[in-house]
Amino acid sequence: MAETATAEPTRRDFLFIATGAVGAVGVAAVAWPFIAQMNPDAATVAAGAPVEVDLTPIAEGQIVKLFWRGKLIFVRHRTAEEIKEAEDVNVASLPDPEADSARVKEGHAQWLVVYGNCTHLGCVPLGNAGAYDGWLCPCHGSVFDTSGRIRQGPAPTNLPIPPYAFVDDTKIQIG
């Protein structure tokens, strides 16, 4: 029987393998920044990315706060009583006249979505507070009703409404 000789690994074989491994790591290290720079930065993504909000866990009468484009947003699940009170207001008596139906999406009157800063100086009003159980700005006394309309105080306009749409009956997309 003939013997087959197997070559022992040599120092040269080790150097070839080690050099190849270091070269592969070096190529990956150089390529990584070039690939990563093609992604938009976090500020760009945060500036315009739409936000989806699941409405299912929001209890009736509850206000949820979230941020979109760095701005505070209030999502309020209004009760039937709050909706009726907001609809029964004489719009002509308001400092910034706007019907409740113009501030909510058709068929979804129980959901009110507004920016969460007072239109006077940008303070954050307290929810479920004030004479109309809407929002009360503790800094200067502006009072908003359950539709986010200014009723008393120095605020010149109603709480603005961000761009939003219903994805389905239990989810909205802001932006």
TrEMBL record:
Residues 76-173 form the Rieske domain. One of its GO terms (cellular component) is plasma membrane. The keyword Transport applies. Its cofactor is [2Fe-2S] cluster. Binds 1 [2Fe-2S] cluster per subunit. GO terms for molecular function: 2 iron, 2 sulfur cluster binding; metal ion binding; quinol-cytochrome-c reductase activity. Its EC number is 7.1.1.8. It is found in: Cell membrane. It comes from the Bacteria. Keywords: 2Fe-2S, Cell membrane, Disulfide bond, Electron transport, Iron, Iron-sulfur, Membrane, Metal-binding, Translocase, Transmembrane, Transmembrane helix, Transport. InterPro entries: Rieske_2Fe-2S, Rieske_2Fe-2S_sf, Rieske_Fe-S_prot, Rieske_Fe-S_prot_C, TAT_signal, Ubiq_cytC_Rdtase_Fe-S_su_TAT, Ubiquinol_cyt_c_Rdtase_Fe-S-su. It is an enzyme of class 7 (translocase). It catalyses: a quinol + 2 Fe(III)-[cytochrome c](out) = a quinone + 2 Fe(II)-[cytochrome c](out) + 2 H(+)(out). The chain crosses the membrane at residues 14-35. Component of the ubiquinol-cytochrome c reductase complex (complex III or cytochrome b-c1 complex), which is a respiratory chain that generates an electrochemical potential coupled to ATP synthesis. The main subunits of complex b-c1 are: cytochrome b, cytochrome c1 and the Rieske protein. This is Ubiquinol-cytochrome c reductase iron-sulfur subunit. It comes from Chelatococcus caeni.
